[in-house]
Amino acid sequence: MIDLKNILPVIHNPHLVKNTNSTDDKLEIKTITIPKEHEPITKSLTDDLFIFYGIPTDNTLELIKKSDLPIDYDIEEINKAAIINLEKRIGDNIGYQSIVPNLIFVKAEAVFVLSVILLDYVWPQFENVLNDKLVISMPTKEVLFVSGENNSNGRARHIEFTKGFFYNSEKKLSNKIYKFSNMNLDLLLTV
After folding, report:
1. What CA–CA distance (Å, rounded) separates 8 from 29?
2. Last residue of a domain, one of 90, 119, 143
3. Same structural domain for residues 31 and 118?
4. Would you say the C-alpha torsion 120, 94, 156, 25 has a positive or negative sign?
5. H or E segment at 55?
């Protein structure tokens, strides 16, 4: 039985893969069939981003499979426990750096930097720094950008940096920029 005190959340795009048969570095969406007993436990965040749940081991996070849990597991209970555990693990060790005016690069433990979006206590701080409602992107597995919704210069740089990181990284995650409000992500645009 999985102990809820050990579960942590990570954000991932399970559909994005690099076409290894191509020399032009194209991406394609593939549906991979996984036997039911090996399917990981997930919760949809957006159409392409999901919360996966895992147990930390030596240098990795071992994903929890459906077969690891009772048939009647409650995903909301797992999600709530994972967020509490994440708060304990990274606590106040969340920072940011303004890489250009009005664009924030969020810093946290690498594997959990994207999971910061699940922590409600962080976002009012970023709203205060930017003095605006928030727009976010997660172009790679370890990069989270935040800008103000109404700042045209910050948004332009946000688009530029998201494109650059997404299309030039081996760790691609999402080429989408979202409005972030009340812990919800609403698609703003695709770069």
Report:
1. 26
2. 90
3. no
4. negative
5. strand 50-56
* Cα 174 to Cα 49: distance, rounded to the nearest angstrom: 8
pLDDT of residue 180: 92
Provide the pairing of β-strand 50-56 with 61-63: antiparallel
Question: If you write DSSP's letter for every residue of 97-117 in order, what string do you get?
Answer: EEEETTEEEEES-GGGTGGGG
CB proximity list for 148: less than 8 A, separation 6 or greater: 102, 130, 131, 132, 133, 134, 135, 154, 155
pTM above 0.70, yes or no: yes
Distance between alpha carbon 163 and the CA centroid of its chain, in Å? 17
Angstrom distance (rounded) from CA 7 to CA 85: 7
Helical residues (DSSP H) of 25-171, grouped into ranges: 75-90, 123-130, 152-167
Please give the average per-residue pLDDT across 106-134, as a whole number.
92
**Contacts (Cβ under 8 Å, ≥6 apart) of 60:** none
**Both tokens assigned to 13:** 């795009």
Q: Which whole number is the average pLDDT over 113-140?
A: 93
Record the tokens describing residue 39, joined without a space. 């399917």
* Domain span including residue 150: 95-190
- Higher local confidence (pLDDT), 117 or 22: 117
Residue 154: phi and psi, rounded to 5, are -65, -40
Which of 185, 188, 190, 191 lies closest to 43 in space, CA to CA? 185
Give the distance, in angstroms, between the CA of residue 30 and the centroid of all CA atoms in the same chain: 20
